[in-house]
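re: the backbone from monday

yeah here it is again, tokenized this time
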């Protein structure tokens, strides 16, 4: 789709609709980095970045009343004025939910009125200057509510240091394996730029021990289908392998495999535990 030529206001673009007051606290409205489940191409997708959420009761007796059509139309017109395009009016039917792994998995990162039949969800996209803003507008529930999610797609800027070659060697000598947290594009096997320091340290580890051979094992959380996650985890392991070969490491010292969600480190009860399971492991080979 073409990029917008409009002058975009500051993120998150929209004021509260006239006569309505948000039902959310500021801490729930704004997230520096999170994941949202939206629909594009007829299926649920995961999008990550900076997030703003707003929620309104449209039939509050002390506020201006909105129908679901009026609420949806206000945002549709405002998004069009910003050069945005509707990318989906597919709804969260049972078939769509099951294709992603079920409603429970969708609900983990869905913030709308409801991810099920009976609610209306529309997804929009604004592109400009190489950036993307995803917007989902939802209406439904009883009493009638309206919700909008605005997400500026971006990779997470890590606030942690990374394990260096010496620490990797120490862990491999002690346990025969080490779990690393390497960033990829969402639902892709493309290494993000901030993965480069970790790749450099793995290459340094291998260069310093010419006899060392490693299996690069990809792992995911349980969000989505197991089959897709196994495929994705193998592709990500292969991307790490290719990056190391590109730094001069002999390919016959490396192998790559993907286990998807089959070997979790911890039970998945929240985002922190799911993040712990999304990893690449280096495993010493004989």
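seq for it, each position gets an aa:
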């Amino acid at each position: 789709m073409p990029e917008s030529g409009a002058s975009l206001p500051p993120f998150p673009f929209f004021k509260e609709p006239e006569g309505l007051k948000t039902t959310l606290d500021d801490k729930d409205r704004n997230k520096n980095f999170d994941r949202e489940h939206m629909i594009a191409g007829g299926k649920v997708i995961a999008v990550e970045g900076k997030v703003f959420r707003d929620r309104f009761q449209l039939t509050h007796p002390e506020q201006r009343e909105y129908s679901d059509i009026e609420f949806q139309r206000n945002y549709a017109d405002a998004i069009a004025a910003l050069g945005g395009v509707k990318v989906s009016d597919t709804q969260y039917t049972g078939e769509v939910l099951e294709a992603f792994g079920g409603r429970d998995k969708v609900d983990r990162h869905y913030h709308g009125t409801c991810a099920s039949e009976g609610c209306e969800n529309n997804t929009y996209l604004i592109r400009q200057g190489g950036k993307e803003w995803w917007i989902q507008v939802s209406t439904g529930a009883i009493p009638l509510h309206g919700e909008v999610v605005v997400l500026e797609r971006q990779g997470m800027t890590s606030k942690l240091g990374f394990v260096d070659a010496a620490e990797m060697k120490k862990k491999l000598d002690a346990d025969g394996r080490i779990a690393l947290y390497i960033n990829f594009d969402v639902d892709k096997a493309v290494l993000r730029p901030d993965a480069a320091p970790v790749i450099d340290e793995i290459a340094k580890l291998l260069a310093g021990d010419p006899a060392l051979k490693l299996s690069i094992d990809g792992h995911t959380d349980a969000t989505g289908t197991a089959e897709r996650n196994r495929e994705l985890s193998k592709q990500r392991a292969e991307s790490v392998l290719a990056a190391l070969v590109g730094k001069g490491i002999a390919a016959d010292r490396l192998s790559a495999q993907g286990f998807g969600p089959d070997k979790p480190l911890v039970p998945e009860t929240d985002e922190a535990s799911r993040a712990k399971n999304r990893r690449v492991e280096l495993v010493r080979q004989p």
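The two ends are 50 Å apart (CA to CA). The chain is about 30% helix and 30% strand.
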